[in-house]
Design a protein that fits this description.
Length: 320
């Protein structure tokens, strides 16, 4: 489907409207958009990552590329140092395509593009180059869910698995925590487009021999589909339930839902009373039980205490 290698990034960056912020900044001239980024790709880490959903991490890890900058900049961000653009190394499109192939050679089950929204034209070009040079593993687009549909269409046919967040239903919460009152509206439209592109989920046994999960069952890996993540925030079980109801009533079993309890209160929210604690087991249990009552079966849940900083990787430029 894709034979050309040239997506003209300048065309899209000269008056940038890649995300719903529609800031219109001339990033091609070196100016910085709302996302904190200019014309070049900046990334902080490219390595095997073991803390995604089991169908993505598998046994050998997901090949995660952590990009710098973010169009949401949630005040509670778990990866705030890269989201704010505080760290990141500049790389070319050609180098990004090489990184994809290097991760494949290291045994990654997939290429995991983490917060790539500011770089959609660059990513498209890098994927086309890498695929022409032997990239065959699935491509995962991992984002905060705040996307422009027209920008996502540039990735049609290149992405196998979409991994968006659905952070908020309430515009009050999305305004307060992410300065994005239209978050729910934009995320809903984006997920519609993601489902249109990749269709029904396809999960198959690993082709690696003697690979089993902790139950002794064959290791299963996602090859295609959408997993919508929802991170439960302290004190926000009502909003979480609204999100789960919407997702289930809209998509049923055509998507997976990942219900996450790993919210970690990092030092930058120490003075924000609503966010300076972990989610309680009772809160998480209420949301999971609600999902069960709704009839959600395609779901991932988390056991134990996952709200630890150890789950946040070091952004030390490994693999960049």
């Amino acid at each position: 489907m894709f034979t050309e290698t040239g997506t003209d990034t300048t065309k899209y960056l000269s008056e940038c409207r890649l995300c719903p912020r529609n800031c219109g900044v001339n990033r091609a001239a070196g100016n910085v958009g709302y996302c904190g980024q200019g014309a070049s790709i900046r990334a902080a880490r490219a390595a095997l990552h073991y803390w995604e959903e089991p169908v993505l991490s598998g046994s050998t890890g997901s090949g995660a590329v952590f990009f710098s900058g973010c169009n949401l900049k949630c005040i509670f961000c778990q990866n705030h140092s890269i989201a704010l653009g505080e760290c990141g190394r500049e790389i070319s499109v050609e180098r990004l395509s090489e990184i994809f192939l290097e991760l494949q050679n290291k045994g990654a089950h997939n290429i995991n593009l983490v917060t790539g929204t500011p770089y959609i034209p660059h990513i498209r070009k890098a994927l086309i180059i890498a695929k022409s040079n032997g990239l065959t593993i699935p491509i995962v687009y991992n984002s905060g869910g705040y996307e422009n549909v027209e920008a996502l269409k540039m990735l049609d046919g290149l992405i196998d698995v979409y991994l968006p967040d659905m952070k908020y239903c309430s515009s009050e919460l999305s305004s307060l925590y992410s300065k994005a009152p239209d978050y729910f509206e934009k995320a809903c439209a984006a997920i519609d487009e993601m489902v249109r592109q990749v269709g029904q989920p396809i999960i198959v046994p690993s082709q690696l021999t003697e690979q089993y999960d902790y139950n002794g069952d064959p290791l299963m890996l996602m090859k295609k589909g959408v997993i919508v993540r929802h991170l439960l925030l302290p004190g926000q079980t009502k909003d979480s339930k609204k999100i789960l109801r919407h997702l289930h009533e809209t998509y049923g079993d055509s998507i997976y839902i990942s219900i996450m309890n790993q919210y970690t209160p990092l030092p930058h929210v120490a003075d924000i009373s609503d966010l300076n604690r972990k989610v309680t087991q009772e809160e998480y249990g209420k949301v999971v039980n609600f999902a069960i009552r709704l009839g959600i079966t395609n779901a991932f849940i988390q056991d134990g205490d996952t709200a630890e900083e150890s789950f946040i990787p070091p952004f030390d430029y490994e693999g960049i």
